[in-house]
Amino acid sequence: MNRAEKAALQLQAVSVLRMLKETRTYDELAELTGLPAGDLNRYVNGHVLPGVERAREVVEGVGRDALADELEARVRFDDEGYVDNSGVVFDQSFLDLVAPVAANTLNFERPDVILTAATDGITLGAAMASYFGARLAYAKKSKETAVEDFIESRQRLASGIELTYYLPASAIDAGERVLVVDDLIRSGETQELLLDIALQGDANIAGVFALIAVGDEGTNRARELTDAPVGALSVFE
Ligand SMILES: O=P(O)(O)OC[C@H]1O[C@H](OP(=O)(O)OP(=O)(O)O)[C@H](O)[C@@H]1O
Ligand SMILES: Nc1ncnc2[nH]cnc12
What pLDDT does residue 158 have? Predict the structure, then answer.
């Protein structure tokens, strides 16, 4: 880890602690993190930065569980089992906390490009791109105007409907590492299309990450298509 990455991790830990402090006293935060209340006070107020090891423990350990709880409190299922996740994908500051947790728990190789699918993957993709200092690219269900060359991938879904995603060919260079992300993975059909687009662009897959996996069908499907890490922040049955 270079100096800038250490500093980014330390600042992320402060963001996680501030988020947790919103609904807790310092004593409760001390109990949750195992860190002294006085130290936590200094971190939350920005007087002192946590050391790198403490920062890592906060972001990886406490951070992941707390974010998963927060995510679960924010999503709603309708009567047919569809997810309303607007409380999550509309909140860029929440997504900014997810990026380092995803990166640290799944151990992706540092990507050059984050690839997602319009529409709902874009805000998570932007948070991940910003965290890694990578570019963001999103495939769309229609062709962008004035772009001449596209990579496209088409699939007939279980429902019989054909789905095509288009990505401007200039978005990925051959040999780049691509991390595929999305807000939600259920059947895995969208991830399969995104992985196909990345492979058509001669990219290397750095991993697949979703905020929410509904069941394990989609993540299993992605695991069959790549040896890179595949995971979700929360799995809903
Ligand atoms: O694993 P799957 O079964 O493919 O489902 C997941 C996909 O479905 C949703 O997108 P949707 O097609 O609803 O488009 P949107 O992002 O524009 O809402 C979601 O954002 C994922 O991209
Ligand atoms: N919002 C949603 N909830 C559950 N499954 C989905 N598949 C595509 N969009 C979905």
Answer: 81
Does residue 120 line the site of ligand 1, with CB under 6 A? yes
Q: Which residues contact 37 (CB under 8 A, 6 or more apart)?
A: 26, 27, 29, 30
Protein residue whose Cα sits closest to atom 8 of ligand 2? 186
CB 213 within 8 A of CB 188: no
Average pLDDT per consecutive 10 residues, the chain (237 residues; last block may be shorter): 91 90 93 96 98 92 86 92 94 87 88 98 97 96 95 91 96 98 96 97 98 96 97 93
Closest ligand, as measured to the CA of 77: 2
The region, left, alpha or beta by phi > 0 then psi within -120 to 50, assigned to residue 130 is alpha
213's CB contacts (< 8 A; 6+ apart) are 184, 185, 186, 219, 232, 234, 235, 236
Maximum distance among all Cα pairs of the chain, rounded to whole angstroms: 60
Q: Which residues line ligand 2 (CB under 6 A)?
A: 82-83, 184, 186, 214
Give the pTM: 0.89
